[in-house]
Amino acid sequence: MKEATGIVVSVVAGYYFVEHGDKVYLCRGRGRLRRAGASPLAGDIVRFNFDKGAETGVIEAVEPRRNQLQRPAVANVDAVVVVLAPRSPQPDLYTADKLLAHLSFQGIPAVVCVNKSDLDPGGAARYAELYRKAGYPALSCSAETGQGLEQLSALLGARTVVLAGQSGVGKSKITSALAVGELAVPLQVGQLSAKIERGRQTTRQVSLLPLAGGGKIADTPGFSVFELDMDSRELHRMYPEFLRHAAGCKFSSCLHIHEPDCAVKEYVRLGEIAPGRYNNYLRIYQELREREAQRY
Ligand SMILES: Nc1nc2c(ncn2[C@@H]2O[C@H](COP(=O)(O)OP(=O)(O)OP(=O)(O)O)[C@@H](O)[C@H]2O)c(=O)[nH]1
Ligand SMILES: [Mg+2]
Ligand SMILES: [Zn+2]
């Protein structure tokens, strides 16, 4: 028996694919991990045992996580790429802004990627500029023509990233364009494939695929509505462009809504802060307020 440290690159039907060196081991987890509610996730750094020369092993322990996404369940995420398209589908900036706020609250850096630039180059550039101006790393690309993919790959570098965004924006196509090769699948998986295929019906499979810069990328299915879990008074701090100007507000507690002498509102009026971002802020704030009111 040999002990090693590896990273979980895929979870399928109760099996863990653990990458160590240039090999992937098919592992089960110790029962006590599950009983302790500490089942490994994709992205987890784990200690596992394997027999020399074997491709299978057993996960003994999971290292503490830096962070954890719920949907998809991925640990130790360095950045989430929020993918939009200028059309087909029409961009839902309200949901994008809500997701960006959520990520900021979780302390997970965001990158904005406007895909399908081939369908509307001007529109794609404008959306990318909108988010760059707000303070996010943002670019436009086309997974269809390849335009901008090198810049995206360079931006992601050695990070572990997850793609998120509306259904149909091109997350899966970007993933296959950026991933270098397939997930190295242990030979043993062939023998287990029938079982794993069955598991696929019920288990949402997450795989971290290798990126050219040494990082890893996970695709996710388009998300539906999700609830923000923060105090309404915290929301304004999730907007990088508000933070940049908030020092100019009369009140240090300014939420940039009804307060007098608000620098943020002034910058919105001047067009320095995108009115669409500000209006989505008001809308999300109102939703949080309503939820809070229902609680009491
Ligand atoms: N014209 C054009 N079409 C694209 C581009 N990227 C993806 N598509 C197409 O858009 C459709 C949806 O792409 P997917 O990659 O499946 O989208 P997705 O974001 O993974 O969607 P979900 O898995 O449903 O969340 C497919 O028909 C793709 O071929 C692009 O850059 N340009
Ligand atoms: Mg997809
Ligand atoms: Zn203000």
Walk me through the structure.
- Strands 10-9-8-11-14-13 form a six-stranded mixed beta sheet, with helices on both faces. It has a five-stranded mixed beta barrel with strand order 1-2-3-5-4. The chain has a two-stranded antiparallel ribbon with strand order 6-7.
- It is an alpha/beta fold and 296 residues long.
- It is globular and about 70 Å long.
- The protein folds into three domains: 2-63 and 185-200, OB fold (Dihydrolipoamide Acetyltransferase, E2P), CATH 2.40.50.140; 69-181 and 212-218, 3-Layer(aba) Sandwich (Rossmann fold), CATH 3.40.50; 232-295, Probable gtpase engc, domain 3 (Ribonucleotide Reductase Protein R1, domain 1).
- 33% of the residues lie in helices and 23% in strands.
- Bound molecules: guanosine-5'-triphosphate, magnesium ion and zinc ion (ZN).
Question: Outline of this structure?
Answer:
The chain has 296 residues and is α/β, with parallel strands linked by helices. The chain has helices at 31-35, 93-106, 121-134, 149-156, 171-178, 188-202, 240-245, 263-269, 275-295; strands at residues 2-12, 15-20, 23-29, 45-50, 56-62, 68-69, 74-75, 79-84, 110-114, 138-140, 160-164, 206-207, 209-210, 216-218. Strands 10-9-8-11-14-13 form a six-stranded mixed β-sheet, sandwiched between helices. Strands 1-2-3-5-4 form a five-stranded mixed beta barrel. The chain has a two-stranded antiparallel sheet with strand order 6-7.
